[in-house]
Amino acid sequence: MMKNPVHPGEILREDVLADLGLSVGEVASRLGISRVTLSRVLHCHARVSPNLAVRLEEAGVGTARAWLAMQSAHDLAAERAAGLPTVRRLDPVA
Questions:
Q1: Structure pTM?
Q2: How far is Cα of residue 32 from the mean position of the Cα atoms in its chain?
Q3: For residue 35, what are the domain limits?
Q4: Cα dist. 87→23, 33, 81, 83 in Å?
């Protein structure tokens, strides 16, 4: 069974910030965002937005495309796990 992709905030918290040894406030300041905004992402309560992805890239932390791909993979897995109401195919009219 395949494991669901982790939230990119968890990767940012566990792999990036831990290695840098910087506080959440310092990282937020350097990125030009509020500490609360960054904290919400780090604790998986908010998504990595395109704006944050670009800021991370500009700060030298991966590429915006990679951060958005991680977020998209996480979001898709969450939606599939939640299930959908009945959906009917969109077949052409005969």
A1: 0.88
A2: 18
A3: 8-79
A4: 46, 40, 15, 11
